[in-house]
Amino acid sequence: MLRLRELRAWYGRIQALFDVSLSLDPGECLALVGTNGSGKTTIVRSLLGLIRTEGEIRLDGQDLSRIATHQRVRRHRIGVVHEGRGLFLRMSVLENILVGRPAGERSRVDTALALFPALANRLHQPAGLLSGGEQQMVALARAVVLQPRVLLLDEPTLGLAPVVIEEIYGYLAKLRETGLTMLLVEQSVRRASAFADRLCLIRSGRSVMTADGRNPAAEAELVRLAFAEADRPDERGGDER
Ligand code: ATP
Question: Within 6 Å (CB) of ligand 1, which residues are found?
Answer without folding.
Answer: 11, 14, 16, 34, 36-42, 187, 237
